Amino acid sequence: MNKSILSYSYASDEVKGYKQSEIAKSEKNDCFVRAVASATGSHYDSAHSFVKETFDRKHKKGTFFMADTMKKLEDTGFSIDNKNFKIKVLPKSRVTNSYKLYGEIVKRKKTVKSFIKDNPKGTFILGVSKHAFTIKDGQLIDNKGEEFRPTRKVESAFKITPKVEEVQLSLF
């Protein structure tokens, strides 16, 4: 019996409008766009516009310095497809493990598998070397061909949560 280590689905199947999008058909290096779309449940074209405007992404060029922009969004949150989201940049302690090696405590980057084990609930966008994807309640949502790589080292992690608008209720 061959049971997969990780629960996995393809971003192309999870992202709304991806297969019909004319923009997606002409794109390359759009893993961060797909990660934003799958993490927020938004349409591919909306996520593409958001990443282009907010992260200064160039067509077919990928997204660079996303961690810097994510840090800025931590204060303000963001909106996509008329839904508001909060973002939490996870500290280094959440993306590293500590090991004892020859009597010394050594910190090493978590693997994707280790991150999922430590964060079974919630929605996260993870950055690994030159790539980004979504983890949603323990399920890896990524591009085809990436599914059997659970040992990639996590460079950065961002928790995405819907922003609940507070409403003042009046009894009279």
Summary of the model, kept short:
The protein contains six helices and nine strands. With 172 residues, the protein is of the alpha+beta class.
Which features would summarize this protein structure in a list?
about 170 residues, alpha+beta, seven-stranded mixed sheet, two-stranded antiparallel ribbon, 6 helices, globular
Could you please describe the fold and organization of this structure?
The structure is a single chain. It contains six helices and nine strands; from the N terminus they run E-H-H-H-H-H-E-E-E-E-H-E-E-E-E. The mean pLDDT is 88. The N and C termini lie far apart (63 Å). With 172 residues, it is an alpha+beta fold. The protein is globular and about 60 Å long. The protein has one domain. A hairpin with a 2-residue loop joins strand 7 and strand 8. The strands form two sheets. Strands 1-8-7-6-9-3-2 form a seven-stranded mixed beta sheet. Strands 4-5 form a two-stranded antiparallel sheet. Helix 3 packs across helix 4. The longest helix is centred in the first third of the chain and has 12 residues.
Helicity level: 25-40%
Q: What is the 3D form?
A: globular
Mean pLDDT: 88
Count every beta strand, where a strand is a DSSP E run of 2 or more residues.
9
